[in-house]
Specification:
The protein has eleven helices and eight strands. With 267 residues, the protein is of the alpha/beta class. The chain has two domains: 229 residues, TIM Barrel (Alpha-Beta Barrel), CATH 3.20.20; 28 residues. The structure holds 3-methyl-2-oxobutanoic acid (KIV).
């Protein structure tokens, strides 16, 4: 039977019917294949690749070429999921022409289905331009990691009225500019509820409570690949660091006592 691929219309219908949207990050073929087969609705090739794949402290250093490489790897593992690729820092902030050129490169060179960018009113012109070229755009508001040097910390955003009002205004602005969906990162649950109820497009939360239309987690966080990283919004479904470390130690011990390979594992 033909696989029913997820599209922006599917996601819109899910909001309307109340079916929650699942989204996970992926950066390579192997994990994208597993998540796609498991039925994850959206795979995000996040610029968090800068942190979890490249070991940088922030998302700022990752380049457009590097994002394209990760997205190409992910697309090879995907049959059904809707794939969104982050525009990295520096590839869209200058003006809407540059934002469109970066988005076109992603769509042409990877075969992904949409791009994501951070910000509100200040990126509205770029969103309009990218959408008018036929490229679906996901917004990202609240904690926007590409602006870490402006904010100085990764703490919860929009707790005060002024920032909350700005976030509500920005959500409306980017919806009107043409975004098909928006990520809300690390904001109070009741604010995310209000925003979710006030827009027609699906909201995807990360540290934004249960009232969003969907949820996203960074795959390394939900798989427990870094056991030291434990902010309260993460649910760990595996303790992979412990499991992988245990497996590596067993392998080392087997090699050291010449127990691997056995005769049955040899030619
Ligand atoms: O880059 C990323 O992983 C993200 C998610 C945190 C939403 O933008």
């Amino acid at each position: 039977m033909a696989i029913k691929k997820i599209t922006t219309s599917t996601l819109q219908r899910m909001k309307t019917s109340g079916e929650k949207i699942s989204m996970l990050t992926a950066y390579d073929f192997s994990f994208a294949r597993i998540f796609d087969n498991a039925g994850v609705d959206i795979l995000l090739v996040g610029d968090s690749a800068s942190n979890v794949m490249a070991g940088n402290e922030t998302t700022l250093p990752i380049t457009l070429d590097q994002m394209i490489y990760h997205a190409q790897c992910v697309m090879k593992g995907v049959n059904r999921s809707f794939v969104v690729v982050d525009l990295p820092f520096g590839s869209y902030q200058s003006n809407s022409e540059i934002a469109l050129a970066s988005s076109i490169r992603i769509m042409k060179e990877t075969g992904a289905h949409a791009i994501k960018l951070e910000g509100g009113e200040e990126v509205a012109e770029s969103i309009k331009k990218i959408v008018s070229a036929g490229i679906p755009v996901m917004g990202h508001l609240g904690l926007t990691p590409q602006s870490i040097n402006k904010f100085g910390s990764y703490t919860v955003r929009a707790k005060e009225d002024v920032e909350a009002e700005k976030l509500k205004r920005d959500t409306k602005i980017i919806e009107e500019a043409g975004c098909f969906s928006v990520v809300l990162e690390k904001i109070p649950a009741l604010l995310a509820k209000e925003v979710t109820e006030s827009v027609h497009i699906p909201t995807i939360g990360i540290g934004a409570g249960k009232y969003c239309d969907g949820q996203v987690l960074v795959m390394h966080d939900m798989l427990g690949i870094n056991s030291e990283f434990k902010p309260r919004f993460i649910r760990k479904y595996l303790e992979l660091e412990t499991l992988i470390s245990g497996a590596a130690k067993e392998y080392i011990a087997d090699v050291k006592r010449n127990d691997f390979p056995s005769d049955g594992e040899s030619y």
